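Example S7 (structure tokens).
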């Protein structure tokens, strides 16, 4: 079937069949939005200003400051590797948490592209002037991929890569060790759990480029930091991380710095 015929049939279906929200399954009046207005608002996206390192929202009184650091990052005795920044679109709770669980474990695959499109629509809130050379979804081990049959980070990354007009890189980095859940480990053992978990398979795809890592849930700074360090060692000029959700309370003073503390409770 030619592209013209498919496009024509698609236009007919758009008229005959109402567009439905992939979360609540109700008809949406605006076919351009991935979710209905009510569901999109229920995801409670974070709003600026953010800590320039970990992406945790900071008090509005900080807005306009040259260097925005949350209390945790300001007093962190062990700062993360240079060029490593994290941003998360919303909190891992309520309807956003349910949507992620339905995607990952309920195999509700329509939610993947919709959530990725929603992430793309919020991208400039978190990276107002940044540009990236490639987008790299956090890889799954082949055993986990066979079990699940899809990588949720790839489903999220495709619409984002399309929106940013950057390549979606799926071959440069491999997960070579199927690590147990981070939640099974004490704080001091969580980095050891990730040691040797990833390998750069094609350094030429990374060298001299700025990389945006994409994942579904930021529950372990250790995973992001391990990948960022690996990419920087392979010659990346900078690494940033964009996650759909984060599990920690963004205003909690008990939240630990990236790569240590309560961040490191990874869900499988």
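Recovered sequence:
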């Amino acid at each position: 079937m030619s592209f013209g015929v498919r496009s024509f049939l698609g236009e007919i279906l758009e008229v005959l069949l109402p567009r439905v929200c992939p979360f609540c399954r109700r008809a949406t009046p605006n076919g351009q939005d991935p979710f209905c207005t009510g569901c999109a608002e229920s995801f409670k996206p974070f709003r600026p200003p953010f800590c320039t390192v970990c992406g945790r929202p900071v008090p509005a009184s900080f807005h306009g400051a040259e260097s925005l650091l949350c209390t945790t990052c300001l007093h962190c005795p062990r700062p993360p590797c240079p060029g490593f920044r994290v941003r998360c679109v919303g909190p891992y709770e309520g309807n956003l948490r349910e949507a992620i669980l339905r995607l990952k474990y309920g195999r509700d695959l329509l939610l993947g592209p919709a959530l990725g499109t929603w992430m793309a629509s919020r991208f400039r809130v978190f990276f107002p002037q940044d540009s990236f050379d490639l987008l790299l979804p956090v890889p799954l081990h082949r055993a986990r991929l066979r079990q699940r049959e899809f990588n949720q980070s790839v489903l999220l990354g495709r619409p984002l890569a399309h929106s940013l007009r950057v390549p979606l890189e799926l071959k440069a980095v491999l997960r070579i060790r199927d690590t147990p859940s981070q939640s099974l480990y004490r704080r001091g053992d969580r980095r050891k759990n990730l040691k040797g978990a990833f390998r750069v398979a094609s350094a030429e795809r990374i060298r001299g480029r700025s990389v945006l890592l994409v994942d579904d849930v930021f529950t372990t700074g250790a995973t992001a930091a391990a990948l960022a360090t690996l990419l920087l060692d392979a010659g990346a000029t900078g690494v940033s991380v964009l996650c759909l959700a984060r599990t920690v309370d963004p205003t909690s003073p008990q939240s630990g710095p990236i790569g240590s503390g309560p961040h490191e409770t990874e869900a499988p």
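Notes on this example. The CA atoms of residues 88 and 243 lie 5 Å apart.
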